[in-house]
Specification:
It is a single chain. This protein has one domain. About 80% of the residues lie in helices and about 0% in strands. It is built from seven helices and no strands. The protein has helices spanning about 1-35, 40-65, 70-90, 100-115, 125-140, 150-170, 175-185. Helix 1 (about 1-35) runs antiparallel to helix 2 (about 40-65), helix 1 packs across helix 7 (about 175-185) and helix 4 packs antiparallel against helix 5 (about 125-140). The longest helix is centred in the first third of the chain and has 34 residues, at about 1-35.
Length: about 190
């Protein structure tokens, strides 16, 4: 009975993760496209809300992927939280150094992709896309990549959008998640 409840809870949590991921995308796009930097007060609020959604997504990803590999899930969460912190501190002009958050989000995407590839409850193609997106975000940081920056952005949006949409629409394979979680408990 508790296994069934845990699986159903994880399925709901996966869908909530997808919905929060969607809300992050929508608020981030809204901040840039509709609000714009011309309205500083409103822009700051929407920007901070989008980052709050991403922090929530990060924590939910940690929980979702902990059965796959707890150490890598922890490292991915730390990288994402550092990326959020760098983004917020840079935005508020409080960062001592100008650090591009993609330095953290690139490896985060690579690790999430790795975790998906090693999971049994999400499609591996999404994991491969996430690894490619993470590599793309790191390449994007280099000046020589300016001529392919549009393609790198598209790759990132397709990969992260695929994960977001899959989690929202399909969730995870409950049975396989439960099996992987049980195997992780036995290893601990």
């Amino acid at each position: 009975m508790t296994e069934r409840i845990a699986g159903a809870f994880q399925q709901s949590r996966a869908r909530i993760t997808g919905i929060l991921y969607l809300l992050y995308f929508l608020t981030a796009i809204c901040a840039e496209v509709f609000v714009g930097k011309g309205r500083p007060g409103l822009y700051e609020v929407v920007f901070l809300i989008s980052n709050a959604f991403y922090v929530a997504v990060t924590l939910l990803f940690y929980s979702l992927f902990k059965p796959v590999n707890m150490s890598i899930s922890t490292l991915a969460a730390l990288l994402s939280l550092l990326g959020c912190a760098a983004s917020i501190l840079g935005f508020l002009h409080l960062a001592p150094y100008n650090i591009n958050p993609l330095i953290f989000f690139g490896p985060f995407c690579i690790l999430i992709g790795y975790l998906i590839l090693n999971s049994s409850f999400l499609p591996r193609i999404i994991g491969a896309l996430m690894v490619l997106a993470g590599v793309g975000w790191l390449i994007y940081l280099f000046p020589f990549a300016s001529h392919i920056s549009t393609y790198l952005k598209i790759l990132g949006i397709v990969a992260e959008g695929s994960l977001m949409l899959w989690l929202t629409a399909m969730g995870v394979n409950e049975q396989r998640w439960k099996e992987q979680a049980a195997a992780a408990e036995m290893r601990a």
